[in-house]
Amino acid sequence: MTQPNADTQVWQMWFTPFPKTVYIARRQVSRVLAGWGVPDDAVDTAVLITSELVTNAIRHCGTRHLVHVEVTDDGDQVLLEVSDPSREHPRPAVAPSYAESGRGLMLVRAAAADFGARDREPVGKTVWATVLRQLAV
User: Residues of the chain whose pLDDT is less than 70?
Assistant: First the structure.
């Protein structure tokens, strides 16, 4: 994961857990990363990952709890962290071909440079993913 340095930039925000939150989180992350000068392709990847992680957090934490999104840019990579009050770590599932959902974590694993989850104290978990600023061609 990202190690802080003098050039590290951090942004964070709490979101209410409703479907519109996904759109708002995507827009905010896009604006922040563009403002930091992150290349467009890395911004697009980060926004896609944010969408999937926030969707999962909302789906699994219920509507009584806030979802926390934190973005850290160390100049080499962007770390995306989404936290919610559930202790249950995400488990990728194999969705049937006709399913309209269920492929989010597979998409995150494919798009991210790295991906994982950890417990958050005093409650909940944080699911994180990293995106390289300069994506491999």
Answer: 1-6, 62-63, 92-103, 135-137
Rounded to an integer, what distance in angstroms lies between the CA atom of residue 17 and that of residue 38?
A: 27
Give me the pLDDT at residue 128, please.
97
**Sheet strand arrangement including 114-119:** 9-15, 67-73, 77-84, 125-132, 114-119
Q: Where are the beta strands (DSSP E) in the chain?
A: 9-15, 67-73, 77-84, 114-119, 125-132
Domains of the chain, first to last: 9-132 (3.30.565.10)
Give the relative orientation of helices 104-111 and 40-61 as an angle to the nearest 10 degrees: 150
Q: Using an 8 Å Cβ cutoff, are 51 and 105 in contact?
A: no
